[in-house]
Amino acid sequence: MLGFASAQAAQQEGNPEAAKIAREAYQAAKDQDWNKAIDGFRKASEKDRKYTQGLGAAYSGRAVAEANDQRFQEALADLAEAIKINPKEARYYEQRAAIEKGINDYDKALADLAEASKINPGEIKYHNYQAYIYETRGDLKNAMAENEAALKINGKNKEALERKQRLLKIQSLNAPQTNTPVPAPPKTKKP
Question: I want to staple 52 with a disulfide (CB 3.0 to 4.6 A). Which of 29, 45, 118, 122 is the partner?
Fold first, then answer.
């Protein structure tokens, strides 16, 4: 994404100073020098608002690096900044949900996945991920509901089909056992 945006930035007309700063920021992002990339995109976007998407992507890239380094709170803060910049980018919510799930903040992860699903309603992976989290929590009702939403999008999705079978099996094992009384044999009268 950053490579495409870099090529696009080089060709776009507009503020030449902003374009130069943005090209340097794109290179810094490519080199994974996230602080330099964020600083550059911030400066470029102050001069020309079309570079704000690059700033969001740089925050997201830095968040991934921070999460890989187990600096989860910093990663969450950077993703919050990316979302402020571009609240309609479902990928940022998905990335944040993955971190939140990793630190066992399931409610926030589910909320972020629901938001990503609102932005991109045809994307099955958000429903599959929510179903997985609900299943992990033992909430079979909501797991099945999200799984059914995934199957409405793609009835042949392997992950959703396998989860459905697993959930049905768990439900049947957890179903209350009913003891149906066996009728007593008829009483016979002795002659």
Answer: 45
In order of 163, 167, 171, 173, the CA distances from 139 in angstroms are 13, 10, 11, 15
Q: Which residues contact 21 (CB under 8 A, 6 or more apart)?
A: 40, 43, 44, 47, 51
pLDDT, average across residues 39-58: 80
Give Cβ neighbours of residue 167 (< 8 Å, ≥ 6 apart): 135, 140, 143, 144, 147
Distance, in Å, from the CA atom of 190 to the CA atom of 174, rounded to the nearest integer, reads 46
Which architecture does CATH list for 1-86? Alpha Horseshoe (1.25)
The whole-model pTM stands at: 0.76
Check: CATH 1.25.40.10 for 101-173?
A: yes
